[in-house]
Design goal:
By secondary structure, the chain is α/β, with parallel strands linked by helices. The protein has helices spanning about 5, 15-35, 40-55, 75-90, 95-115, 160-195, 200-215, 220-225, 240-255, 280-290, 290-295, 325-340, 355-360, 390-410, and strands at about 60-70, 125-135, 145-150, 155-160, 230-235, 265-270, 295-305, 310-320, 325, 345-350, 365-370. The strands form two sheets. Strands 1, 2, 3, 6, 7, 8, 9, 10 and 11 form a nine-stranded mixed sheet that branches. Strand 8 (about 310-320) and strand 9 form a beta hairpin. It is elongated, with a radius of gyration of 24 Å.
Length: about 425
């Protein structure tokens, strides 16, 4: 038996009605407010709209501000591409310079895009962004809390994905990164062989000429990388991630409609801003509230795109595969899904991250939960991510699993 059925009045839980609400809310935000770039006025308007709904079901709803340098996350692209192209030129007559330039190109790519460090933030203009936190308090003393997280912003359009699809996009991105690695190694090897050891035979010169020609071929994907993303046009973001926001909100909706609050467990919904700018909202919230989040047991479940049911998964590893989420929380969500009749596997985010990573980095027990094709699908971060592409059944399943997760956590805690 589902834990939710024991704790809530099942006669008052209408998942189909909730799905209708979720689809309508997402559609209204997309049509009336529009795309929500990180730190934009539209992001805040969408948050205020969702906060107004949350006020019906939560005891407290707060909006907190922070500063985001929204272009910093992808701001490395022109610099890294320039370093790669110039390093290719220097390979022919000054390889040590080429080697240094490739290293310089790698630094922001790794720190910003792979590790989500705020490395370039000081170089970019700051913009106001916000987080919304809604809390349905325990009826007695609060001994633990669970936070469901969804991000309110939408990404600047990934032009290559829109034009070429996920596989076509990778045909530019992977060669660009591989080319930078090869360029780095080639410059270093030539510097050691020719400049340091003085080996300059005809065979060696011919070999390095061929290598240089190969390096020049990589200029094509380097230039393609420049068109990876728009820096002005953001996308509707109906699935990524209004679906995650509304699935999270549905937990409080169902609890309120059943007139239920847990005796010792606070249930919270966090709608972050600027996730697409490098988890900036989640990072800001985790830093500001770290002390209180650790004073009592706190569990965080970050809910992202709820669309592709065949890919529904609990995230085991995050932050480009470098971060492992809490075992107990992963099992909690997996067991909740099992109670709903689903065999949800563990999966890893090997390129990118979700909001759960910001909390795990702070030592707060967290995991991610999503249903999205990791290819990625062509709608991902493109103008195609509109309300027409919503999958009501996926929204329904996501809402059901999150509600069961909340009830199961209150019932048995972390095992």
């Amino acid at each position: 038996m589902k834990t939710a059925l024991k704790k809530l009045d099942s006669s008052k839980i209408n998942l189909d009605s909730t799905v209708d609400y979720m689809v309508k809310k997402i559609t209204d935000i997309c049509e009336k407010i529009g795309p929500r770039a990180p730190g934009s006025e539209q992001e805040l308007q969408a948050q205020k709209s969702m906060a107004k709904d949350l006020e019906q079901w939560a005891d407290t709803v707060e909006i907190e501000g922070f500063t985001v340098h929204r272009q910093a996350f992808m701001g490395f692209i022109p610099f890294t591409v320039a370093m790669a192209i110039i390093a290719t030129v220097f390979f022919f007559f000054k390889p040590i310079v080429g080697f240094i330039l490739t290293i310089l190109g790698f630094i922001p790519l790794v720190l910003e895009f792979l590790m989500y460090k705020r490395f370039l933030d000081p170089l970019f203009i700051g913009h106001p962004s916000h987080n919304v936190i809604a809390t349905r308090k325990a009826s007695a003393q609060t001994k633990k809390r669970i936070i469901f997280v969804g991000h309110s912003d939408s990404q600047y359009e990934w032009i290559l994905n829109y034009k070429l699809g996920g596989t076509g996009m990778k045909l530019f991105l992977i060669p660009a990164v591989v080319g930078l690695v090869i360029c780095c190694i080639a410059n270093l090897v030539k510097f050691i062989v020719v400049d340091i050891n003085g080996v300059a035979t005809q065979g060696v010169e011919t070999f390095f000429l061929i290598v240089g020609i190969v390096l020049c071929v990589f200029i094509v994907p380097y230039v393609g990388f420049l068109f990876f993303q728009s820096y002005t046009k953001s996308v509707p973001g109906a699935n990524d991630n209004l679906s995650g926001c509304l699935a999270s909100m549905s937990v409080l909706k169902h609890m309120a409609e059943s007139d239920v609050r847990f005796e010792n467990t606070d249930v919270c919904v966090l709608l972050t801003g600027s996730e697409e700018a490098g988890l900036r909202g989640a990072k800001a919230y985790a830093e500001k509230h770290e002390k209180e989040l650790k004073e009592i047991e706190t569990v965080v479940v970050a809910c992202d795109t709820m669309r592709d049911l065949e890919y529904m998964a609990v995230y085991d590893r995050d932050l480009s595969g470098t971060l492992k989420h809490d075992k107990q929380v992963k099992e909690l969500v997996k067991n909740a899904a099992a109670n709903c009749g689903l065999d949800v596997p563990y999966a890893s985010i090997y390129l990118g991250a979700c909001d759960a990573a910001a909390f795990t980095q702070k030592g707060i027990k967290s995991t991610g939960f999503a249903a999205m094709d990791p290819t990625p699908p062509r709608y991902y971060h493109t103008r195609l991510d509109s309300p027409e592409l919503l999958v009501p059944e996926a929204l329904k399943v996501g809402a059901e699993v999150l509600l069961e997760t909340a009830c199961l956590y209150d019932e048995v805690g972390l095992q």
